Structure formats: structure tokens, C-alpha cells
Amino acid sequence: MPLVVPGIQSKDNSSSEDWSNKLMGKKLGDAHDNMTFAKQDLPKEHRVVKPDSMSTMDFKPERLNIHVAEDGTVTNVKYG
Q1: What pLDDT, on a 0 to 100 scale, did the predictor assign at position 13?
Q2: Nearest Cα to 55, choosing from 45, 67, 41?
Q3: DSSP of 24-56, one letter per residue?
């Protein structure tokens, strides 16, 4: 079984830094433009974490966690 290091690599060979570069400062939407990233292009294993929302503390190295601000702008991206 291959070793998967969270934040370094994932199943699709994208690191959280790669996703951070793609998503930081953008909003999630239906289509791409200068300020929006299309939701359908996110990895299968992902979740969007809104401020003050509850989420489980289970650790899944292949899951991309996308933290957004009140206005929906991406503020943090990490695997786990």
C-alpha cells in the first residue's frame, strides 16, 4: 500500500499547496471565471467548511477541506 502524506500528495497527485494556489481568494460556483472556481472540478473527496459550521474531527488524508469566509471566499485549503 503506498504511503500518502497529507498536504504533500494525494490520490490524484495534487498537493494542498496546488489546491491553495487554485482556490485562495476565489468563490466556488458553477463555472470558472477570474473570481470563481467551478465546483465540479473539485476532487471527489472534499468538503466545504463554513464559519461557525460543525464538522467531524475524523482524519481522512484523501479529503480536501476548503474553508470559506462568510461571503463564500476561500480562506484556507488543506487535506485531512
Answers
A1: 53
A2: 67
A3: TT-EEESS-BTTEEEGGGS-SSEEEE-TT----
Q: What is the pLDDT of residue 10?
A: 44
Strands 64-68 and 74-79: antiparallel
Query: pLDDT digit string (tens) for 9-64?
Result: 444 557 889 999 999 999 999 999 999 999 999 999 999 999 999 989 999 999 99
Cα 10 to Cα 6: distance, rounded to the nearest angstrom: 7
Q: Grid coordinates representing 52?
A: 461557525
Q: Which residue has the cell 500500500?
A: 1
Place of cell 461571503: 71
> Domains in the chain, start-ordered, CATH in brackets?
16-79 (3.30.10.10)
Residue ranges of the alpha helices (H) in the chain? 16-23
